[in-house]
Amino acid sequence: MKHPVQQVIRATLLACFLVSLPVAHLHAQEASSTKEQAGDENLGWKWANFGILAVGLGYLMGKMLPPFFRSRTVEIQRGIAEAQALKADAEKRAAQMDARLAALGEEIEKFRVQSRAEMEQEGQRIAEETARQMARLQQQIEVEIETAAKNARRELKIFAAKLALDLAEQRIRTRLDRPTEAGLIEDFVQDLEGSRN
Asked: Could you state, in order of their start, the residue ranges of all structural domains in the chain?
């Protein structure tokens, strides 16, 4: 279906063409006859053609333009309604974004407080764990020191006993001569014989 404005334009062009035909015909006649005779005879035709053209254009415009303007008005109103709906939707989205941004600020602050609390708890847990580890290490060190001290005392006792035996052996050797040694052996043998009886 053709657009009403296009139909009006075509009708106008057709009317202009029809008007121009008698005018072109008149120009051809004027060239062949005198100016006064041709102008007077064709003046009535000119006005008749102009009247027909004006009535035809008026009729076409009266028939075609009101529906065109009504449809354009409806399209414009529909466009305005869509624009208002888009504007309302955009305002709603903007309000939601503002609410989200406000909530985001609150969430960030909440996250900061929570992170601070978690960091403090983690720091406290690490401090407690470090204290436990240090106490365990202290205990282990004390046990190792005590064990090392016991070992050192034992070795010192062994060394002292060995040293005492060595000294006693040296003293006994310096005091023991042949007759004393023979007397000791004889006493030992007699003690053995006495214990057998």
From this structure: 4-127
